């Protein structure tokens, strides 16, 4: 009898965490390494949010709470959805979890049976397929190439739906590409979903507030209200408010689904950290001027990175609408040999050689389901980004 679960054999460790850990190890060993793998803002959590957490401690708000969130935070989430997305929810339609990842995982565990299919556009966040596999479902990957700006088309979605399809996971702006869907682009997808009433929609709106230029964020249930009853809208405070370590995610949807998610959470982690919940309450109800300030900095960094990477030989880097990632294509580098003697056969080899020869750590595209690409997180300082991009330019110039 094997000791480890057969289910565990279906999944792999997170490549983004692996790259981040590798960069840390090299730095600790004294290597000159620039890590562009981590998906978290480099800014500190706003002071008013930290102060709210301190007050919660001082006021003794350190006991168990309701399994899926304190009433005050749930109401704040309802108010946020109405204010920012035009979506009306009541507190019994809201769940709060230990980070957005737990919320997504709870949804899948609560709903998937063997043979159920989940449509996932690629490039995708690395955890989507593996969470589906852990929950007993089958990921259906649909590649969205650079020619469609890394976005799923209505025709692709229609072709991917089968009688076994249970969920469609939708992420905009996207990790890893930063691609954001316009209202019209999303309406084309929701029109398809209206024709298939057995398919539910799970949105990952974690990068909602990180959009640039004239781009306007929208979410499926907002675009097509007729999908409201089979959509669960997921979000969190991690990216927008620089609260990755606080671990608070949330979602709103039909009450019967929220109850099922609560049952899963009651037998796993139980409630999220009480102090983090009060910090999240302050994030959603307190001053929001931090959002505009961080958005301005991220847009400047995006423009810097896109410009410098497009100057590198063999690289094509589209300009994303949001998030803090770019997803450059390296088709022009494949088949060449690096200055250090490595034959570049794919994006994983490219990323490995780049790290070994220049000290720049990026995540290879195959980890996100679409090659030949790599992901750069520009959630770091302008000076570091300039240095990193200059090293990438030098690496590409040395390919022959």
Notable features of this structure?
400 residues, alpha/beta, Aspartate Aminotransferase, domain 1, Aspartate Aminotransferase, domain 2, 2 domains, three-stranded antiparallel beta sheet, 12 strands, 12% strand
CATH topology grouping of the largest domain: Aspartate Aminotransferase, domain 2
| Widest beta sheet: strand line-up | 2-8-7-6-5-3-4
Q: From N to C, what is the helix and strand string?
A: HEHHEHEHEHEHEHEEHHHEHEEEH
In total, the number of domains comes to 2
Helix amount:
25-40%
Q: Which whole number gives the mean pLDDT?
A: 96
How is the biggest beta sheet arranged? 7 strands, mixed
What overall geometry do the principal axes of the alpha carbons give? Answer: globular
Strand residue content: 5-15%
Poorly predicted runs are: none
Total helical elements:
13
Radius of gyration: 21 Å
Give the N-terminus to C-terminus distance in angstroms.
Answer: 52 Å
* Architecture per CATH nomenclature, i.e. the level-2 architecture of the largest domain: 3-Layer(aba) Sandwich
Which class best fits the helix and strand makeup? alpha/beta
Could you tell me the number of beta strands?
A: 12
- Briefly, what CATH class of the largest domain? Alpha Beta
Provide the CATH superfamily of the largest domain: Type I PLP-dependent aspartate aminotransferase-like (Major domain)
């Amino acid at each position: 009898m094997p000791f480890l679960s057969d289910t565990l054999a279906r999944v792999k460790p997170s490549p983004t965490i692996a790259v981040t850990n590798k960069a840390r190890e090299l730095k600790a060993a004294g290597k000159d390494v620039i890590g562009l793998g981590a998906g978290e803002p480099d800014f500190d959590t706003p002071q008013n949010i930290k102060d709210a957490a301190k007050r919660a401690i001082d006021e003794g708000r350190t006991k168990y709470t309701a399994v899926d969130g304190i009433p005050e935070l749930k109401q704040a989430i309802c108010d946020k959805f109405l204010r920012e997305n035009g979506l009306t929810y009541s507190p019994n339609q809201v769940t709060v979890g230990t980070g957005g990842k737990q919320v997504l995982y709870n949804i899948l565990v609560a709903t998937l049976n063997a043979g159920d299919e989940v449509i996932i556009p690629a490039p995708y966040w690395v955890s989507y397929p593996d969470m589906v596999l852990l929950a007993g479902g089958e990921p259906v990957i649909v590649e969205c190439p650079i020619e469609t700006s890394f976005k799923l088309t209505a025709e692709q979605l229609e072709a991917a739906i089968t009688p076994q399809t249970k969920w469609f996971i939708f992420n905009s702006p996207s990790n890893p590409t930063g691609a954001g869907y316009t209202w019209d682009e999303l309406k084309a997808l929701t029109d398809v979903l209206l024709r298939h009433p057995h398919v539910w929609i799970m949105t990952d709106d974690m990068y909602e507030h990180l959009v640039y230029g004239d781009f306007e964020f929208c979410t499926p249930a907002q675009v097509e209200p007729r999908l409201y009853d089979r959509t669960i809208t997921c979000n969190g405070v991690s990216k927008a408010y620089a609260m990755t370590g606080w671990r608070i995610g949330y979602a709103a949807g039909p009450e019967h689904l929220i109850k099922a998610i609560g049952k899963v959470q009651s037998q796993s982690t139980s409630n999220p950290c009480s102090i983090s919940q009060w910090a999240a309450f302050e994030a959603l109800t307190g001053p929001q001027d931090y959002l505009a300030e961080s958005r301005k900095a991220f847009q400047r960094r995006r423009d810097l990175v896109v410009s410098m990477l497009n100057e590198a030989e063999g690289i094509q880097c589209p300009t994303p609408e949001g998030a803090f990632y770019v997803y450059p294509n390296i088709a022009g580098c494949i088949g060449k040999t690096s200055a250090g003697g490595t034959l570049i056969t794919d994006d994983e080899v490219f990323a490995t050689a780049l790290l070994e020869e220049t000290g720049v750590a990026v995540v290879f595209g195959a980890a996100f389901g679409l090659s030949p690409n790599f992901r750069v997180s520009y959630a770091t300082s302008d000076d570091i980004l300039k240095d990193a991009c200059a090293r990438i330019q030098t690496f590409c110039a040395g390919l022959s």
